[in-house]
Design goal:
single chain, 414 residues, alpha/beta, Rossmann fold, 15 helices, 47% helix
Length: 414
């Protein structure tokens, strides 16, 4: 009798042990790396992106985490907006903190440098705001996904708007002003090439290349004013964009020369609300006001403002938030947090995000998201200017043909 009783006790103990161990495994936290340029030229955008990521993680964890049982734990590192530092910090996140995915970076140069590291260690790499097309076009990695419109897409959108204006206003020649690094070079090159196709009557008078992080634009400003182009096409962002605008305004630059194509995200619209020249034709990547009719965006804006003291979310916050929710839907589709399985199902996956229902294009893992072009102007609904007369250029109208991607990958193997 005692033997039978002891057997039952042992069996129950083993069963309880199995259940407990199963619960422990089921409750394994999901380690999410965030490697952004919190210092350097990427500071403004990276901080906003982190807020979007934090809100998404908070919302998902309130429901138990991924699959309702894997709470997300954020591991954060500063890449200093430098490729070599980015590589070191991401390796640290992978080897020390055991992250399964890394959201990285503000700088496209950093994202390109980090991509092979994530592939080597089989860690998901999500480029949420760095948008060089080369992040997904060449040296393809099945672990890298991009949730921001890339440089080719944005360039096509910009050239579309510029060509329309040039035709209407009789413009003949222009100057380009672009930051001398991966994003600026890639975007300028694509715009110039596309304008040759859609507006062959336009001629480039001069290409100007201020260094990334430029603090003195005076020589560029006076040079452009001396050349008297019909317009200036700009590829400046973040602090560089703000600095140029502040230094050019006293010269009356914006009253004398049409300035088009500059990136004016919600960050600039808010921080430069009083000084930003109205009438600028600008491009943006994910302005919240373009999609307030999407329930997920309306909810995000409401929750973001409640969490961050009434602040409106920037493009960078939107895309950081979308990056986490795209990952969440990949995990749900795979039914597991196993990285290789998640990576496989995310290829070609259609996800519901703040910007609508969008697909990761199978050939390159680029999210088929829109670009936005509009005119800086005031709106009584907001305490800062927005992009009015907004044109949404959908991915289907501005993405690179797949045949060209295939050719580019063949060429890199030669």
């Amino acid at each position: 009798m005692k033997s039978k009783f002891l057997g039952i006790v042992v069996a129950v103990a083993l069963l309880l042990g199995f259940i407990i161990s199963g619960n422990v495994a089921a409750a394994e936290p999901y380690h999410l790396g965030v490697a952004l340029g919190f210092t350097g030229t990427g500071t403004l955008y990276s901080k906003d992106q982190l807020e979007g990521i934090q809100l998404a993680v908070e919302e998902i964890n309130a429901k138990g985490g991924f699959l309702g049982k894997h709470p997300i734990k954020i591991f954060q590192q500063d890449t200093q907006t430098k490729p070599d530092v980015g590589v070191r910090t991401v390796k640290d996140l992978i080897l020390r903190d055991k992250v399964r995915a890394v959201i990285n970076d503000y700088s496209s140069a950093v994202a390109v440098a980090v991509k092979p590291i994530c592939r080597e260690y089989k860690v998901l790499h999500i480029a949420a705001i760095s948008n060089s097309e080369n992040i997904t076009k060449v040296n393809y990695s099945p672990y890298t996904f991009q949730v921001v419109p890339n440089t080719y897409m944005q360039a096509k959108a910009a050239s579309y708007a510029v060509a329309q204006m040039a035709q209407k206003k009789g413009w003949k020649e222009y100057v380009t002003l672009a930051s001398d690094y991966e994003w600026g070079r890639a975007t300028q090159e694509e715009v110039v090439a596309d304008l040759k196709r859609v507006a062959p009557f336009l001629k480039v008078k001069k290409e100007l290349w201020p260094k990334l992080g430029e603090t003195q634009f005076t020589s560029f400003i006076t040079s452009m004013m001396g050349m008297k182009p019909d317009f200036v096409y700009a590829c400046l962002a973040s602090k560089d964009n703000v600095t140029f605008t502040e230094q050019a305004k006293p010269y009356g630059f914006f009253d004398k020369i049409p300035y088009v194509g500059s990136m004016q995200s919600v960050t600039e619209l808010i921080t430069e609300a009083k000084t930003l020249p109205r009438g600028l034709v600008a491009i943006s990547r994910a302005p919240f006001f373009a999609h307030m009719d999407v329930p997920m965006m309306a909810s995000f804006v409401k929750n973001y403002r409640a969490k961050f003291n009434g602040k409106y979310p920037s493009d960078w916050a939107v895309m950081g938030y979308d990056a986490v929710y795209a990952l969440k839907q990949g995990v749900e589709k795979a039914g597991t947090i196993d990285t290789d399985k998640v990576k496989d199902v995310m290829k070609g996956l259609t996800v519901d995000l703040t910007r609508g229902k969008l697909q990761f294009r199978p050939i390159d893992n680029q999210l088929r998201c829109s670009s936005y072009v509009g005119v800086v102007g005031d709106d009584p609904k907001y305490p800062f200017p927005i992009l009015k007369d907004l044109i949404e250029i959908k991915a289907s109208d501005c993405e690179r043909p797949e045949a060209e991607i295939i050719e580019a990958r063949k060429a890199e193997k030669k």
